[in-house]
Amino acid sequence: MVRNGMRSKTGRIFLSPPWMGGEERKRVAEAFDSNYIAPCGPMVERFEREMAARTGFPDACAVSSGTGALDLLFDLLGIGPGDTVCCSDLTFISSIGPAFHRGATPVFIDSDRGSWNLDPAQLARAIDRERPKAVVAVDLYGQCCDYDRIGVICDRSGIPLIIDAAEALGARYRGRSAGQAGWAAVFSFNGNKIITTSGGGMVVSRDAACVRAARKLSQQAREPVSWYEHERVGYNYRMSNITAGIGVGQLACLDTILTRKRAIFEAYRARLDGVARITFMPEAAYGTPTRWLTVIRIAPTARDRRTADPAKPGPHILRAIQALEAADIESRPVWKPMHLQPVFAQAAYYAGRRSVSEDLFRNGLCLPSGCGLTRRQIDRICSILLRSLEG
Ligand SMILES: Cc1ncc(COP(=O)(O)O)c(C=O)c1O
């Protein structure tokens, strides 16, 4: 049975609620029956095997969050005080947060207008000047960044590239799966992601040794002997065997989820395409995004521009969010760029003459994109949105 989770009694429409295919309960019950009610067990191993097979990696390590997955990779790279890490500017704070906690200095890279993802030209400039110890390139809203161009830039300087594919499971880049670039990649299974384990993440890499090392670190870095032996201190980041059951069930319906996400995007496009002020997040020619979220840019009016507060989304975006909220519909602005975050006020930022990420923050809107959305709900969302633009 298909369930569109996180439905409120009042019929609230959420931005990206979980979508269950039906196998999840069975797999969770199996996990219970095995009595591995623990952060290890056969369901964790199965989820890892099936994720690795689905994404084309030799191995995968399941952990408790995407943030934890990134933290493990930063640890494996020895990121610490005095190091610089280059990161996409337009992202969620987790892309850089664990490196910051380790004392690294973040450097942010603007987006490319054609994909909204990391701009390779700005990255090249930043690498020349900053000599970073690592690069984190984000696959924004379910679209891969330009793996080949970014990969070449990192390779020629010998800098490890981490792909933050938290939002992009199922996306393709020139026929490859999301994450298939650089040294290693992470996925997230947070409640709002393409598939969820309620909370969870995955480390993947073409370098099987990297995944093995991440797995060991995620389990307190215990040495493989019968007593407790530690050559270094690790973490308790392993995924629970119970939540891995949700993951195995979710993976079985990934293709259905991807089809539905695409259909939702197409429905919005059919309804909003001719509206002069609205454009959709562009699709780069190199791949197929998942449309994890349908995201639009709404051109500001002259008045919106005049009254805008640069630290906030534009007044037209705030009006749209408010109008939708009044109808119990959740929407969100595009990520606030990292270089505009008060906590990163001192960080270097590489952009052209006009910051793309600032423009997208001020004028971007993430529309409800849950797999259970009906055509009727999409119509209603669009009507409210368009009315808010008239005001
Ligand atoms: C781009 C990006 N990176 C990392 C994360 C962190 O993942 P998690 O919430 O599983 O820690 C998220 C979302 O949550 C994300 O959107």
List its salient traits.
single chain; 391 residues; alpha/beta; Aspartate Aminotransferase, domain 2; Aspartate Aminotransferase, domain 1; 8-stranded mixed sheet; 4-stranded antiparallel sheet; 13 helices; 17 strands; 16% strand; disordered N terminus; binds pyridoxal-5'-phosphate
Q: Quick summary of this structure?
A:
This protein has 391 residues and is α/β, with parallel strands linked by helices. It contains 13 helices and 17 strands.
Q: What structural class is derived from the secondary structure elements?
A: alpha/beta
- List SSEs in N-to-C order: EEHHEHEHEHEHEEEEEHHHEEEHHEEHEH
How would you describe the shape? globular
Number of helices: 13
Main beta sheet: 8 strands, mixed
Percent range for β-strand residues: 15-25%
The total count of strands amounts to 17
Question: What does the secondary structure layout of this molecule look like, with pairings?
Answer:
Blueprint: E1 3-4, E2 19-20, H1 24-33, H2 42-55, E3 59-63, H3 66-76, E4 84-88, H4 97-101, E5 105-109, H5 120-130, E6 134-138, H6 147-157, E7 161-164, E8 172-173, E9 176-177, E10 184-188, E11 201-205, H7 208-218, H8 241-252, H9 254-272, E12 278-280, E13 287-288, E14 294-298, H10 302-307, H11 315-326, E15 332-333, E16 348-350, H12 356-363, E17 364-367, H13 375-390
Parallel strand pairs: 4-5, 4-6, 5-16, 6-7, 7-10
Antiparallel strand pairs: 1-2, 3-11, 8-9, 8-13, 10-11, 12-14, 14-17, 15-17
Helix pairs in contact: 1-8, 2-8, 3-7, 5-6, 9-13, 11-13
The structure holds pyridoxal-5'-phosphate (PLP).
